[in-house]
Amino acid sequence: MATQQRPFHLVVFGASGFTGQFVTEEVAREQVSPERNSHLPWAVAGRSREKLQRVLERAAMKLGRPTLSSEVGIIICDITNPASLDEMAKQATVVLSCVGPYRFYGEPVVKACVENGTSCIDICGEPQFLELMYWKYHEKAAEKGVYIIGSSGFDSIPADLGVIYTKNKMNGTLTAVESFLTIHSGPEGLCVHDGTWKSAVYGFGDQSSLKKLRNEANLKPVPIVGPKLKRRWPISYCRELNSYSIPFLGADVSVVKRTQRYLYENLEQSPVQYAAYLTVGGITSVIKLMFAGLFFLFFVRFSIGRQLLIKFPWLFSFGYFSKQGPTQRQIDASSFTMTFFGQGYSQGFGTDKSKPNIRICTQVKGPEAGYVATSIAMVQAAMTLLNDASDLPKVGGVFTPAAAFSRTKLIDRLTQRGIEFSVISSSEV
Hints:
By secondary structure, this protein is an alpha/beta fold. The protein has helices spanning 18-31, 49-63, 68-71, 82-90, 102-105, 107-115, 127-144, 157-169, 194-205, 207-217, 252-267, 283-299, 303-311, 313-316, 328-333, 369-387, 401-405, 410-416, and strands at 8-13, 42-46, 73-76, 92-97, 119-122, 147-149, 172-184, 192-193, 236-238, 243-247, 273-281, 321-322, 335-346, 358-367, 397-399, 420-428. It has a 7-stranded parallel beta sheet, sandwiched between helices. α1 (18-31) packs across α2. 46% of the residues are buried.
């Protein structure tokens, strides 16, 4: 991608937020990566110069880079001031938008980027926002030749690119995939910052808007190849992983389905059916999660319930979410594994009447999901935009990660930085 003589290749917007601090550190690491053979001018952006300065100082200490603060630009801008967002966008080739919940703060950044010819990457896990941005800005972004790529963090790069990886590794036609996410924690357990909790509360509280948006879109169904993928029960046992599982309620299914539609309609690729699950261990965890889920689904229906959920995240999530977020020790001891079970047909085998005759199992493994893996994924997505221009879609637009990056070296980049893709087994049935 041409850097168009702009002062900064990357600008981290919302750098002083909880996730933005991790993204800032990750860009600082990338800046001195041994593989880099060119200069990477970048900046942080937000409302408060003091806070941004503190984030850079903390990153400098953590990375042992005393001169970091003097190497990074600072841009002052505010989500409520469109002119300041325009000024930020004009100075960047790619903006990394870290300000959520995106349903409240995401669109002004997308609008400023599209209008000023700047590409934008976010780490949103909110299907309503992601799908709305496509309908509102895809054509304008295409006209401007810029790439607006949502859900480029843990939501939903491992799932979206994991399906592409599985498809590429199968010796035939992949027709259906189930993914199972397992989160591993250390002795101090798991914790997630309440920004993610807020996004979930508002998303589930406003599901009718997403339904309405999809009804208005009135898209033709993508054809089903091979037998229809059956949904599992709300609580099911996965024999292969020796664990109970529940449906994964993040953005992964929405994102993967949009990618498969894009690949089918634009590149004439055979679409893959997809379902996502979260492993929850033994029966005790199942009971605990059932209670938390019932509480959540009851309270999220009412305005006062949503206020209570947002005010007391720790209480209603049984300690999984807090306003402080995870400690460094919790982060260091945490990791994730996403296992994909795919089925399909070997070359020359008819997909219409016969049963699938190939099975494949692949895995994506990485460090702590919410902040470490998210930052790596986001920054490597940005580096791919900057460096793999000839392998991106020919014209700009609003894309899912795999729609934008399926032909690039992003999977290799992620693997080099600790988010590893591998084939576990593959066999003809």
